[in-house]
Amino acid sequence: MSSSSLPDWVFPPPEGFSAQDLDHIPDLPAHTELIDGSLVFVSPQASFHMRVTSLLESEVRRATPVDLRVRREMSVILDRDQRPEPDLCLISATAEEHAEQTFYHASDVLLVAEVVSPESRTRDRQRKPQLYASAGIPHFWRIENQSGKAVVYAYELDPATKSYALTGIHHDRLKLTIPFDLDIDLDAIDRI
């Protein structure tokens, strides 16, 4: 494939793309993220990824206080050239502005969760946590596939250092009291 057969938007401008650009690029593939001013295209999701995300979405939604909302695969603007799309996020109810909304602002996000895929390992384990912490998002969950079982690494933001501290590694059950009481049987992904 020659560069002349590619759409113009594949080539970033000299200053990189901005978070606002994502809403104006024609025919952009679904779930395209913006990391460090560059477009990141995601691979199709595997069954494990889909099942874990569905389980967390339904169980977190069930436990969520009335002033918060659970959202799946919505992008979050962290700054000018950072607009990742976490698998799951927990937002303030007031962040919901209108039905055509395509993103949330980091200041409205309480929690982001990323289910690690083979193609996104480095982004999900290293770059995205750095970006989420730098933007001040208080909680981050990283979910890994260990032999078909979900393992949740839960982190809380240290506001002094703007970095995440590991608060727990959850193998069979995700039981937390922060950001609210939560008890999820992680083995339930086998029943989804």
TrEMBL record:
Domain Putative restriction endonuclease: 27-176
Recorded coiled-coil stretches: none
Residues that span the membrane, as ranges: none
Protein species of origin: Nonomuraea diastatica
Keywords for the protein's UniProt record, in alphabetical order: Endonuclease, Hydrolase, Nuclease
Highest taxon in the source lineage: Bacteria
Gene3D superfamilies reported for this sequence: tt1808, chain A
MF term (GO), any: endonuclease activity
Upper taxonomic lineage: Bacteria, Bacillati, Actinomycetota, Actinomycetes, Streptosporangiales
Protein's name in the database: Uma2 family endonuclease
InterPro entries: Nuclease_put_TT1808, Restrct_endonuc-II-like, Uma2
